[in-house]
C-alpha cells in the first residue's frame, strides 16, 4: 500500500448520514458495478454491526466471495480527502468519550484521527489532489518488483495503475489526508511545507467525518496488542513536548 503516515484508509459505504449528501445524490458519475459493490459493502457493515474488528482485508474477501470475478484492479486507486486543522467536539457522545479516554491515557496531541474531523469537499480537486493506491502483488506480472523503481507514489506502475484520480462514487476505500498540527506538518523540514501552505490547508471545513466513527480504532488496537499498557508503549503517552494546534477551536 502506497500511503504516507499522515493518511488513513477508511471504508466508503452508502447510507451514511453525511453532510455532503447533496454531492452523493446529484453526482452522476457512479457506474453500475461500483454501485453494486458499495451497496454490498453497506449491507456487510450492517450485518456485522460495524464491528470494530472489520479490516480492509475482510472487506476485500467479502467482495471476492460475492462477485464472480475479481472485483479489484491489481492497482487500486483511492481518492484522498483533505482534513484541516480545526478541532471540533460536535460528534456523538461515544466519540467524545473516546477522546477523553485518549487524552487521559495517551499522547492525544499526536492522534490526528481523533482530533481533526473537519475536511474539504469531496469534489474539490484543489484541496484533495491526486489519489494513492494499494496493489495486489500476486497479480503483477511482467515487472521485476525487486529492481523496477516506482515512477511516483500516486501511480507507481503505469502498466497496472490508472491515472491517479478516482471519484468517491466509484470506490470502496478512500484516504483521509491529515494536515494536523503545525508541529507535525513542519517537522520533516520539507520546503514545500511552509507556514503559508499550512494556513491554506488548515481551514478546510466543508463537512465533518463524524459518520466515519474513526474513534473505534483505539479500543480495537488495545485489544490486538494486548492491553492499554502495551498500546501506550507503542503510541506514546502525554508529555511536556505535546503538540498544540495553532487552530484549537470548538464548533457546534
Write down the secondary-structure element order: EHHHEEHHEHEEHHEHH
Parts with pLDDT < 50 across at least 5 consecutive residues: 19-23, 240-252
Rg result: 19 Å
Distance between the termini: 36 Å
Order of adjacent strands in the largest pleated sheet: 1-6-3
CA-based shape: globular
Task: Enumerate how many helices there are, as a single number.
Answer: 10
Percent of residues in beta strands: 5-15%
Assign a percent range to the helix content: 25-40%
Features:
globular; disordered C terminus; 10 helices; 3-stranded mixed sheet; alpha+beta; 252 residues
Layout of strands and helices, then pairs:
Blueprint: E1 7-11, H1 21-26, H2 32-47, H3 56-66, E2 75-78, E3 80-83, H4 93-105, H5 112-115, E4 118-119, H6 125-128, E5 132-135, E6 173-178, H7 182-186, H8 195-202, E7 207-208, H9 217-225, H10 228-235
Parallel strand pairs: 3-6
Antiparallel strand pairs: 1-6, 2-5, 4-7
Walk me through this protein's architecture.
It contains 10 helices and 7 strands. The protein has helices at 21-26, 32-47, 56-66, 93-105, 112-115, 125-128, 182-186, 195-202, 217-225, 228-235; strands spanning 7-11, 75-78, 80-83, 118-119, 132-135, 173-178, 207-208. The strands form 3 sheets. A 3-stranded mixed beta sheet has the order 1-6-3, with no helix packed on it. A two-stranded antiparallel sheet has the order 2-5. Helix 2 (32-47) packs across helix 3 (56-66) and helix 9 crosses helix 10 (228-235). The longest helix has 16 residues, at 32-47. It starts with 6 loop residues before the first strand and ends in a 17-residue tail after the last helix. 27% of the residues are buried.
Amino acid at each position: 500500500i502506497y500511503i504516507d503516515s499522515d493518511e488513513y484508509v477508511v471504508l466508503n459505504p452508502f447510507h451514511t448520514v453525511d453532510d455532503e449528501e447533496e454531492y452523493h445524490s446529484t453526482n452522476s458519475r457512479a457506474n453500475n458495478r461500483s454501485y453494486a459493490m458499495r451497496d454490498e459493502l453497506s449491507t456487510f457493515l450492517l450485518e456485522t454491526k460495524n464491528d470494530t474488528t472489520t479490516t480492509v482485508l475482510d472487506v476485500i474477501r467479502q467482495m471476492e466471495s460475492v462477485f464472480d470475478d475479481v472485483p479489484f484492479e491489481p492497482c487500486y486507486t483511492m481518492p484522498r480527502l483533505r482534513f484541516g486543522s480545526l478541532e471540533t467536539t460536535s460528534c456523538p457522545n461515544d466519540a467524545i468519550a473516546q477522546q477523553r479516554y485518549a487524552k487521559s491515557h495517551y499522547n492525544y496531541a499526536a492522534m490526528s484521527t481523533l482530533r481533526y474531523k473537519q475536511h474539504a469537499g469531496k469534489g474539490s480537486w484543489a484541496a484533495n489532489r491526486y489519489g494513492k493506491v494499494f496493489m495486489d502483488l500476486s497479480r503483477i506480472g511482467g515487472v521485476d518488483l525487486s529492481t523496477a523503481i516506482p515512477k511516483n507514489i500516486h501511480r507507481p506502475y503505469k502498466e497496472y495503475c490508472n491515472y491517479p484520480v478516482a471519484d468517491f462514487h466509484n470506490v470502496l476505500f478512500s484516504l483521509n489526508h491529515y494536515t494536523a498540527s503545525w508541529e507535525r506538518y513542519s517537522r520533516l523540514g520539507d520546503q514545500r511545507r511552509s507556514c503559508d501552505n499550512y494556513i491554506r490547508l488548515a481551514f478546510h471545513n466543508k463537512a465533518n467525518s463524524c459518520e466515519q466513527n474513526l474513534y473505534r480504532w483505539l479500543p480495537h488496537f488495545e485489544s490486538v496488542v494486548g492491553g492499554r499498557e502495551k498500546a501506550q508503549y507503542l503510541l506514546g503517552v502525554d508529555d511536556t513536548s505535546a503538540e498544540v494546534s495553532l487552530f484549537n477551536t470548538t464548533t457546534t
